[in-house]
Amino acid sequence: MKIIMLGAPGAGKGTQAKKIAEKYTIPHISTGDIFRANIKNNTELGQKAKTYMDKGELVPDELVVDLIMDRFKEADCANGYVLDGFPRTIPQAEALDKALAANGEKVDFAINVEVPDENIINRMSGRRACVGCGATYHIKYNPTKVEGICDACGEKLILRDDDKPETVKNRLSVYHEQTQPLIDYYAKKNVLAEVDGTKDMEDVFNDIVTILGK
Ligand code: AP5
Ligand code: ZN
């Protein structure tokens, strides 16, 4: 099963993609996580991506497309995947379709997690990310057992650089301009499903399972 998560920054794509990956035993591929891992390891790709990410801008399409095409070659992608943060522009979506079509494949579901802009800033300012394993939490909606410490690996939690309110505002306008057109793109391909992302995390997940099937 090949699934795409659509939605504004902070809509809960990563939160739901992780649950989908566990339930359907497919890999969760987050381009944002891959970039953050490269920044942490100070790779050339990480250095390039950081200049865009810190401003809330998108990383150039060719960098992202090359990265994702390499990721698809790994063995764990054989039965599909859940893509979180890719595609984010029409050219990225077209590159994905072209690569899939070359193998007679296509996207099965594009799930749009809908959350109004008013809720987004609140979510982002409360999000905390683990410096060790990248797990994300929320100080109010998904707190850790011990404040500031990751439940999964015991490392400390931080506020992402791009989760500061000024950058979030820019990420939202970039989203509306460059990523929102993908909703129509996938609607026209009859693979779009919409879920109300303002519900509790578990309720959102149940709605997604209803769409994907048990
Ligand atoms: P990326 O990491 O993909 O960021 P994003 O799309 O902005 O998404 P987020 O990770 O911020 O949010 P999310 O929707 O996953 O929400 P989450 O589940 O964490 O990308 C970062 C940057 O990398 C981009 O700005 C760009 O520069 C670059 N990049 C990445 N991919 C790219 C691409 N393809 N092309 C070009 N550039 C690219 O949830 C948010 C918070 O809310 C959490 O604290 C969570 O606990 C909480 N929460 C989740 N669900 C609920 C709920 N139902 N109720 C209450 N709280 C909730
Ligand atoms: Zn951790």
Automatic annotation (TrEMBL):
It catalyses: AMP + ATP = 2 ADP. Its EC number is 2.7.4.3. PROSITE patterns: ADENYLATE_KINASE. AMP binds at residues 31, 36, 57-59, 85-88, 92, 160, 171. Keywords: ATP-binding, Cytoplasm, Kinase, Metal-binding, Nucleotide biosynthesis, Nucleotide-binding, Transferase, Zinc. Residues 126-163 are annotated as: LID. The keyword Cytoplasm applies. ATP binds at residues 10-15, 127, 136-137, 199. Zn(2+) binds at residues 130, 133, 150, 153. Residues 30-59 are annotated as: NMP. One of its GO terms (molecular function) is AMP kinase activity. Residues 127-162 form the Adenylate kinase active site lid domain. It is found in: Cytoplasm. Pathway: Purine metabolism; AMP biosynthesis via salvage pathway; AMP from ADP: step 1/1. It is an enzyme of class 2 (transferase). InterPro entries: Adenyl_kin_sub, Adenylat/UMP-CMP_kin, Adenylat_kinase_CS, Adenylate_kinase_lid-dom, P-loop_NTPase. Consists of three domains, a large central CORE domain and two small peripheral domains, NMPbind and LID, which undergo movements during catalysis. The LID domain closes over the site of phosphoryl transfer upon ATP binding. Assembling and dissambling the active center during each catalytic cycle provides an effective means to prevent ATP hydrolysis. Some bacteria have evolved a zinc-coordinating structure that stabilizes the LID domain. Monomer. Belongs to the adenylate kinase family. Catalyzes the reversible transfer of the terminal phosphate group between ATP and AMP. Plays an important role in cellular energy homeostasis and in adenine nucleotide metabolism. This is Adenylate kinase. The lineage of its organism: Bacteria, Bacillati, Bacillota, Clostridia, Lachnospirales.
